[in-house]
Amino acid sequence: MSAPFEERSGVVPCGTPWGRWYQTLEEVFIEVRVPPGTRAKDVRCSLRSRHISLAVCGQELLQGKLFDSTVTDEGTWTLEDRQMIRIVLMKTNRDAGNCWTSLLENEYAADPWNPGFDFSGAEISGNYSKGGPDFSSLEN
Length: 140
What we know:
CATH topology of the domain at 14-105: Immunoglobulin-like
Largest sheet: 5 strands, antiparallel
Strand content: 35-45%
CATH architecture of the domain at 14-105: Sandwich
CATH class of the domain at 14-105: Mainly Beta
Low-confidence stretches: 1-5
Strand order of the largest sheet: 1-2-3-8-7
Distance between the termini: 11 Å
Number of strands: 10
Number of helices: 0
């Protein structure tokens, strides 16, 4: 069973206990639900190349080693409507074969048959020279 597909954006969100995450070839998006009325001064967010931590009002919501490296200076977080934090990370490796299979190492896994992308409407020409992820070891 695959995750729900958002047709407009072409991504498959990966649900988590704290919200969801999804990816494009270039970026990783993390959406964390926070208590209504949360203020920016209540938020402590650290974005490093391979590590992330997020706490609200002293309560740790997300912390760990990222699946792959990101461009530290390009990472941002915003508080939206005082009830959700959106974190955007720029992937260091933006090749088609660099599809993150989880957000953190061994935690918050993507659906292995559709890891954050939907190519059902794509025309496959076979002209990409660097190939893509190898899913041949996965069972159907």
